[in-house]
Amino acid sequence: MDMNQYLSMFIDESNDHLQSLNESMMGLEANPEDLSIVQVIFRSAHTLKGMAATMGFEDLASLTHQMENVLDLVRNNKLRMQDFIFDTLFKSIDALESMVEDITGGGAGKADVTAIVSSLQAIVRGEVPSAGNASAEVTAAASGNASAAQVFLDEFQYSVLEQSLQEGHQVLYVDVAIRKDCQLKAVRAYMVFDLLERSGEVVKSFPSVQDIEQEKFDYGFSLYYITQKDASEIQKMILNLSEIDAVTAVALDQESLRQMGQDSVAATAEAPAPAPVQEAAPVAANASPAAPLHPKEENGKAAPARAGGAPSPSRTIRVDIERLDVLMNLFSELLIDRVRLEQLASEVQNGDLTETVEHMGRVSGDLQNIVMKLRMVPVDTVFNRFPRMIRDLAKSLDKKVDLIVTGADTELDRTVIDEIGDPLVHLLRNAVDHGIESIADRIAAGKPETGTVQLRAFHSGNHVFIEIEEDGKGIYPKNVLASAVKKGVITQEQAGTMTDDEAYQLLFAPGFSTAEVISDVSGRGVGLDVVKSKISSLGGNVTIYSTPGKGTNFSVQLPLTLSIIAAMLVRLGSEKYAIPLSSIVETGIVKQSQIRTIHGNRMLEFRGSHIPLVSLSKIFSIPDYDESTEEETEIVVVRKGERLVALAVQDFIGQNEIVIKNLGKYLPDVQGISGATILGDGQVALIIDPNAFIK
Amino acid sequence: MAEDIKVIVFKLGTEEYGIEVEKVQTIERMMPITRVPKTYSFIKGVINLRGVVIPVIDLRGRFGIEEAEHTDQTRIIIVNVNEMEVGFIVDSANDVIDLNRDIIDVPPDVVGGIKAKYLDGVAKIGDDRLLIMLNLSEVLNKSEIVQLESLEG
């Protein structure tokens, strides 16, 4: 069967399940006793396992299988959730995520998850270190345990061994430890088995032969072995193989065999939990008597309650963004035809025709709204990864942080959504790392020890605002200024005249970081300047409000969409250009006499300062216009940050909503041009990139 | 036994050129072109092809042949090569023929003044028709244009 056609569906659904796993785990962490959440997690993991197995992603399937084993014990009240289990499960989800990412990138979804798997197995065996223990310790404990673990025999195996003894064969209990630096331990193990099987028979091994073949074991394994040779000989044989750390081979007699056999039988009967779980089948049936009865009822109740309470599955379909782009193109064509039809109708002066064209105009207006809405995506698709990130971040910084997300259903154009993730990650890291104080500092400042980070999204006019506000230590303008002077960003004199707001803006200056010590969290040599420039490139803006001692608010203002903008259409000779309204400060008319030349550059006095006058006709070599021949010139003053430039144009045509198109792959970058748009008459007009004229 | 390929035939001056039909999206009549400043002189600008903005190249200019007035016969051939959509302005385009790959010869070093690297080969049809098969990726290769310009300039 060709799986490729299902692959994108698999990836989409896996991502959904991973997201749900992450969310539910966060929920469970906040509320560890709520077994209904465990059920949800279990179901997600189970579905994921099934899908992965069907698609042939074995590593994915086996890791989810191990997770299921743990979750199964939890939901059956055999295991209480605690920090170590949470961490391990989160790590597993991370590993699954990277596997799915690998598959998305065309890989086979392979990953080395031995450490996580052994942690999960250790949890299933009941070896959970007390809170705070490093996971390394666990792995060590797990591996130590694996080699020393009892090899449980079933009755059949026991009788085989017993019979062999009676027939005069040697029965050995062999424990092999492979060197920790061994690269291919499964191969090494295979060589041991191969060697042993040449002069005898391996009756039973722990872990099972399958697990060993799949490297699902730590650096040791044990086995029962029937042979004619004696223990020391076998020991020597195995030790002759390279990369074997230690071998113990013990010859068993009737008595010791019975002892071990009984032990193991007893062990399996008494405690099902520590037994290596081979099947996904829930061990629920033989619930230990200690477990109270009510959780089962709770499970029963929880499932339907959730089904009713949870938002009903939204009736949506997935659409390739490229198809939407095609739809958009077709639509803009329709708009152009509409304009032509309107022109024709007004010439023909036929009542019926005019009416029909008007009706078509209304319909296409509605259609335009729908097409635009199709491209809108809730910011939730970006926000949903933040709770997990904040959790991990707070943990690694040893802080307590609550993330409160509001307005996650606010919609933004898909193109903005794709770009906004990274800047937000940076601002959130910044808020937790630099904003929120350590627990001790918070207590000393009389604040609750848990800091709060608010992540808000909301519409306002033609913009969407995303705010990140924390109740941390705030930013002291004085410190910012001092630091900026020290780093040479500004001079001492400049610092003296700056307002608080201007001081805050310095945080966005290249090469500026307020942190005394650059931590590995927000350091990385990337500053807020990168955030600022990214947001500017989206046509947005960032502002900071801070109250020293109380907290800081980063407010990001974004345009609703990137594909349609308001623009000023201007004419230069026979050519038309569009200038984005967002960068226009004002328009005006200047006389030749107002233009001065300073150092060979033409300058213009504008609101008390001199700004450069850029001749578009010269830069673009416009064939049939030159403003220097005119007595008066229309100008458009554009802004990039604090700097202003006046662009000389011939005429203003007017303001228009334009659909942005790129110039095609053959012309990726044309200086001074950021794209093109199609005007009502079907002509292409180029969009001027004002930033290109401001150095 | 080489396969047959379908080829769009177009003219630049007196010479006939061929482009494999799979690489051709459509052939359009001349339409308004918006000039794009600060590009090579042979890039005439961009057109609106049913809602998509596509750059247009004057093939005469690209090959260093003197550019001609546009006539009723002038066509824009929209090709799609290496995911780039580009229009070629040609003098005329009015033929589609089947060509056996066997009859396409390796091009001579210089054909009609065009650098041989733009050519995939030359096909002789009948007794007196020579069809020059274009290597579109090379025609659209911009890094090489810079070299060419400097050689000529």
Automatic annotation (TrEMBL), chain A:
It comes from Paenibacillus rhizoplanae. Residues 265-291, 302-314 have a biased composition (Low complexity). Signal peptide: none annotated. Residues 1-103 form the HPt domain. PANTHER family: CHEMOTAXIS PROTEIN CHEA, SENSOR HISTIDINE KINASE CHEA. The modification Phosphohistidine is found at H46. Residues 263-314 are annotated as: Disordered. It is an enzyme of class 2 (transferase). Residues 312-562 form the Histidine kinase domain. It holds the Pfam family Hpt. Keywords: ATP-binding, Chemotaxis, Kinase, Nucleotide-binding, Phosphoprotein, Transferase, Two-component regulatory system. This is Chemotaxis protein CheA. It catalyses: ATP + protein L-histidine = ADP + protein N-phospho-L-histidine.
UniProtKB/TrEMBL annotation, chain B:
Residues 4-145 form the CheW-like domain. It comes from the Bacteria. CDD domains: CheW. This is Purine-binding chemotaxis protein CheW. The lineage of its organism: Bacteria, Bacillati, Bacillota, Bacilli, Bacillales.
